[in-house]
Write a structure and sequence with these properties.
Distance between the termini: 43 Å
Strand content: under 5%
Number of strands: 0
CATH class: Mainly Alpha
Number of domains: 1
CATH architecture: Up-down Bundle
Number of helices: 7
């Protein structure tokens, strides 16, 4: 029952994205990344021992990341390089092929993490570490450093 509720919330949250994205891709991608950040925080707390391992939370964290990987790359159309307090680097548009490749790797790695069905902390650390390594690499290459 808990999984059904979690999946229902995810479906509801992501079902409004196409309309919102067309109106404001910067706000939409920021909202999606905020969800990824929350998932990373929950997963990170388990990895660091700040929260007890929970298989449902672990799977949800990976699923949120994977859901974002499926379409967030499309939320960087030409013309959205500035405005909305974006922290996207101009390099993203200059190296679109590299960015698309990074997003595809994120999708593959998060899908593999979900498929591995990590049932304990040791297995989750591997899947989560692989998934979040993508976040750091992409932010380093395609995000303006925060001051």
């Amino acid at each position: 029952m808990k999984r059904i509720l979690i999946y229902s919330v995810l479906v509801a949250a992501f079902s409004t994205i196409p309309v919102f994205a067309a109106e404001d891709p910067i706000a939409t991608r920021k909202a999606i990344m905020k969800n990824v950040g929350a998932a990373a925080k929950a997963g990170g707390a388990m990895v660091k021992g700040e929260a007890e391992f929970n298989a449902v939370t672990a799977e949800l964290a990976l699923r949120v990341m994977n859901a974002a990987s499926l379409g967030v790359g499309e939320l960087f159309p030409k013309g959205s390089e500035t405005g909305g307090k974006t922290t996207a680097s101009p390099k993203l548009w200059e190296d679109r092929a590299g960015f698309d490749k990074a997003m595809a790797k994120f999708q593959t790695d998060t899908a593999a993490g979900i498929a591995s069905k990590p049932a304990d902390l040791a297995a989750f650390k591997v899947a989560f570490g692989t998934a979040t390594a993508n976040c750091g690499a992409c932010h380093k290459a395609y995000r303006v450093k925060k001051e």
